[in-house]
Amino acid sequence: MQVSDTQGAPGASYAYKASLIGSAHRFELTDAGLSWHIGGRSGLWRYDEISAVRLSFRPVSMQQHRFRADVSRSGGGRIAILSTSWQTAALMAPQDNGFRDFIIEFHARMAKAGSRAVLTAGLGRNTYAAVLAFMAVLTVAMTGLLVRALMIGAFAGALFILGFAALFAWQVGGFVRRNQPQSYSFDRVPRSLLP
Fold first, then answer.
1. Residue 7 falls within a domain, yes or no?
2. What keywords are assigned to this protein (predicted)?
3. In this structure, what is the dihedral angle of CA atoms 136, 138, 142, 147, given to the nearest 10 degrees?
4. Range of the domain at 148
């Protein structure tokens, strides 16, 4: 699924397939607002109707480098825009440049229209606190297992625990670091949440 440019500006349109079954999700930035086509539905949200944008890093098993933008409208409704597109049953392809250009242009057009949307990044504060609490409990448990393994002389087990902890820190640490809750402005879109 290639990004097309129908408005003349880089990043003015973007499309991706959210699943193997179904049509592509298409988005276009027009002078009037954000035009979207998802399945059999379509609509146009004026930039001043958009109440919130949340950027986040959302890896999945088939694509460890996936980003998401959730756009909410003041009258109700939410649209998710993903940085990956399904190609085959076993391949989810990244669309890094197209997604990044579209999101930056989207923010620029909202700023130009005088939008008052709430711009947030990362996970919600409660969800992020729960993730940190879970990681703290897991760290205490793993440390206890490591100490016990060293005390009884199970050095192979201690190495396994250290290896598992390093892999876990590498995989989950990036997710937690990128998804730290924060607010941002139209001219300072967080680069850590763009491909």
1. no
2. Membrane, Transmembrane, Transmembrane helix
3. 50
4. 125-176
